[in-house]
Design goal:
It is a single chain. By secondary structure, the chain is an alpha+beta fold. It has eight helices and 18 strands. It has an eight-stranded mixed β-sheet with strand order 4-5-3-13-14-15-12-16. It has a three-stranded antiparallel β-sheet with strand order 8-9-10, with no helix packed on it. Helix 3 (48-71) crosses helix 6. The longest helix is centred in the first third of the chain and has 24 residues, at 48-71. It is globular and about 65 Å long. The chain starts with a helix and ends in a 20-residue tail after the last helix. The mean pLDDT is 94.
Length: 354
């Protein structure tokens, strides 16, 4: 996902680009994404991911129509708002504080009383109120990746299949990457997701580990309008007549299979959110590996000890939301242009300083 976005933005910026993909689908994090665009739900205002997430959402708002025109692919952008329910006194206090803070910063955000939620979401279980982010939404990750790849090739990027094992460099600068063959390059963007730290000959350890996320698709309740709702530690999202419910956060190495325990936990949370789903048939379940970092922030920017190496990894649960803006940031940096203020918090050297 992030690699496709970087390839498209770099090609759009006039660079000669080769996007190298390993092929296959096992474990890819974006395939286990609900495609949420929820910066106002998932990040507090003081977190760098809040402003970065808003910029990420804005990227898709601007890019959806041009991508449709250039590739004939509709990325499924939906901006009907996201509700996060409060189900305890502590959650009420926390969400009310978040509403106040966001409104003080000029963002659209509302607190809804239980009666207002019952009126507009009568199919939800009991709540103690909730935060409504009326501009948050989602998109279709599979369509988005396809659109970015197709547009990248239209702009001149080359997409090849290889499993890269090693970075090559000489005299303090990058010379390329090696897999089944050697791919010479003046610049290398490391966007290998959960596998980023497994590339050999990197100048420092990459603090990224795989975090498994499982998802379940259930039949969407007949009486419910298309919605996205967070609560009880999970979420439920409407897509194509289905309810996509998630998700888990598991440190299971590179094992990307679904588990009975994971599916049961997701289903239980979905039933608390929407009692009508308690007996709903599971249509399918799937999983992927997100690239997690120790502080929950992506690793984006130049390698200070090796000229020509750029990091675009570690996006965790925010890979879809931040992919487009990450591509823009990498293009800015590689082209010597000014980019977003939050870039300092994402600097690669923050974990290993040498």
């Amino acid at each position: 996902m992030v690699g496709a976005a970087c390839a498209r933005q770099l090609a759009q910026g006039g660079h000669r680009v080769r996007l190298i993909e390993r092929g296959g689908q096992a474990g890819e994090g974006w395939r286990a994404s609900a495609g949420m665009l929820a910066p106002q739900i998932e990040s507090p205002v003081e977190n760098p991911l809040f402003e970065l997430g808003l910029a990420g959402h804005e990227f898709y708002r601007d890019a959806a129509q041009p991508l449709l025109e250039s590739t004939s692919i509709d990325i499924g952008l939906w901006e009907g708002g996201i509700l996060q329910t409060a189900n305890s006194e502590l959650e009420v206090e926390t969400l009310k504080q978040r509403v106040a803070m966001q409104r003080q910063h000029g963002h659209h955000c509302e607190w809804l009383d239980p009666e207002e939620i019952r009126r507009d979401w009568p199919w939800l279980g009991p709540t103690q109120g909730g935060l409504l982010a009326p501009r948050d939404g989602c998109l279709d990750p599979v369509r988005l990746v396809e659109a970015l790849r197709r547009d990248a090739t239209r702009l001149g990027a080359e997409i090849v299949s290889d499993t890269i094992s090693t970075l090559t460099h000489s005299s303090g600068r990058v010379t390329g990457v090696e897999g089944a063959e050697w791919h010479p390059a003046d610049h290398v963007v490391l966007a290998a997701g959960a596998w980023s730290g497994r590339i050999a000959n990197l100048p420092r350890p990459v603090s990224v580990e795989p975090v498994r996320g499982q998802l379940v698709a259930l039949r969407w309740p007949d009486e419910a309008e298309p919605s996205i709702v967070f609560g009880h530690g999970g979420y439920l999202l409407h897509r194509g007549g289905e309810g996509v419910a998630g998700s888990t956060v598991e440190h299971a190495g590179f094992t990307s299979q679904v588990t009975e325990a994971g599916v049961a936990a997701i289903r239980a949370r979905a039933a608390l959110l929407t009692p009508a789903l308690a007996e709903a048939k599971i249509l399918r379940a799937w999983a992927g590996l997100r690239p997690g970092t120790p502080d929950g922030l992506p690793i984006v920017g130049p390698e200070p000890t090796l000229e020509g190496l750029w990091y675009a990894t570690g996006h965790g649960r925010n890979g879809i939301l931040l992919a487009g803006i990450t591509g823009t940031i990498i293009n800015h940096l590689l082209s010597g242009e000014t980019t977003v203020e939050e870039i300092d918090a994402l600097r690669p050297a923050r974990f290993w300083s040498w």
